[in-house]
Amino acid sequence: MDIVNSLALSSPEILLTISGLILLMVCAFVGDKAARIVTILAVAALFGATAITADFLTNPAFELGGDAWAGIYRMDAFGSFSKILIYLAAIGCLIVTPKFFDATGEYRPEYPVLMLFGAVGMGLMVSAVDLMTLYMGLELTSLASYVLASFTRSDDRSAEAGLKYFVLGALASGILLYGMSLVYGFTGSTNYIGIRVALQDGLSTGALFGIVFVLAGMAFKIAAVPFHMWTPDVYEGAPTPVTAFFATAPKVAAIVIMMRIALDPFGGQSDAWQQIVIFAALASIVVGALGAISQDNIKRLLAYSSINNVGFILIGLAAATEAGAAAMLVYLTIYVAMSLGSFVVVMMMRDADGKQVEEISKLGGLSRSQPWLALCMAMMMLSLAGIPPLFGFWGKLVVFQAAVQADMVLLAALGIAASVIGAFYYLKIVKIMYFDEPAGVVAPSHDTARWAVLAVTALIVSPLGYLLIVPLGALASRAAAALFFII
């Protein structure tokens, strides 16, 4: 019965794994001409996994969750909420991808298969309650990501991005693994509950070093300062659909596992890591904002924007409370919509020859030639800046509110002050699109799939998004409560 229960609780990962293996065989026997059908089937598999996970999240029978596979995997509301975000982000990225590669003819069926296996790894990560399970999921995701970053063989920038991501990713994995070994050595357990119990009697110097190394390795994965150096180069060099994927699904998974690690096994020793998180939060906000100001490449600007937004999300983690965790999940949900919408606009920015337009200066006068595209981009930028009445304002508000409730008024005040810096480069893009002379470079886009995804994300970040406050807040609170259930 234990095996049956474990299979049922981990059914989303099992569904995606079986789907990925079947589609991999289709790739091998049918070849590149199966790329479109494999993409459609991969999207269907992700929708299936989303439906199963949504049932786990909303069904009262699963309210308390459950442990599987001898306690190394946990299905709870926290993991289910995170998986739904990951799967929906992957679906959005897959829908807009095929058209991007039409110009080069380099789209191959391996692409959606890699996305599926990456989703499996991310699912394992967010449901892991053992360091070994976490590491296996992390490496499965990383291996798929390295290949995706260098997917465009004809582009030297893509190969460079893949190599940089691989080298620095391997370094971060080594740091993380060393931290895990220290934690195991000084607590005698790799299970989260065992680690928490061992640390209740006090924190030794060795265990403290282990916590620092684990958090440092995770900081690389979420692109937090000072481990952010890979982000602008990889975001610029990787194919734009891959960059959109990196900025959404893996980002959610990395932040979520950092939350689970900090608040579950290390939750009893929050005083030991809160100062580290506070520094990373403020440094990420400032460095991300200052780094973006001088950028002329839209993908590099969005890379620094992601660093900036990670800083705001970490303010919720610094609070180390249930309200802070819920605020992080709300912010992550809104951030996925904003980031995906922004990169969809970038994908639609092509000249008359079909070449990607990445220079911000070439967006001049876009509002006059393509008013709807310019409007959507302006909404994404203003929402990322946290300017009301767009929904991005709500994400920042709940995070700052959680910090104030945790008596971190100074941290909230510094975050609000630093957010003003970030508003500058977002407003600069809006100014170029609406007030500069027309550059006449970006050609109209008629791709229905991209417009559909862009329309959905634009509706979410618009003032209509505030209609989601009650259901989104309720689900986020339920997920956060599950994370603190064993505490």
TrEMBL record:
EC number: 7.1.1.-
Reaction equations catalysed: a quinone + NADH + 5 H(+)(in) = a quinol + NAD(+) + 4 H(+)(out)
UniProt-annotated location(s): Cell membrane; Endomembrane system; Membrane
GO molecular function terms attached to this record: NADH dehydrogenase (quinone) (non-electrogenic) activity; NADH dehydrogenase (ubiquinone) activity; quinone binding
Domain of life: Bacteria
Biological process annotations from GO: ATP synthesis coupled electron transport
Keywords attached to this entry: Cell membrane, Membrane, NAD, Oxidoreductase, Quinone, Translocase, Transmembrane, Transmembrane helix, Transport, Ubiquinone
Gene Ontology cellular component terms for the protein in this record: endomembrane system; plasma membrane
Pfam families per record: Proton_antipo_M
UniProt xrefs under InterPro entries: NADH-Q_OxRdtase_suN/2, ND/Mrp_TM
Transmembrane segments annotated in the record for this chain: 14-31, 38-57, 77-97, 109-128, 165-187, 207-230, 275-294, 301-320, 326-349, 370-388, 408-427, 448-469
Membrane topology, as annotated: Multi-pass membrane protein
Keyword Cell membrane among UniProt keywords: yes
Ranges for domain NADH:quinone oxidoreductase/Mrp antiporter transmembrane: 128-422
Assembly behavior: NDH-1 is composed of 14 different subunits. Subunits NuoA, H, J, K, L, M, N constitute the membrane sector of the complex.
Family: Belongs to the complex I subunit 2 family.
Function of the molecule: NDH-1 shuttles electrons from NADH, via FMN and iron-sulfur (Fe-S) centers, to quinones in the respiratory chain. The immediate electron acceptor for the enzyme in this species is believed to be ubiquinone. Couples the redox reaction to proton translocation (for every two electrons transferred, four hydrogen ions are translocated across the cytoplasmic membrane), and thus conserves the redox energy in a proton gradient.
Name of the protein in question: NADH-quinone oxidoreductase subunit N
Organism, as annotated: Pontixanthobacter rizhaonensis
Lineage: Bacteria, Pseudomonadati, Pseudomonadota, Alphaproteobacteria, Sphingomonadales
Gene that encodes it: nuoN
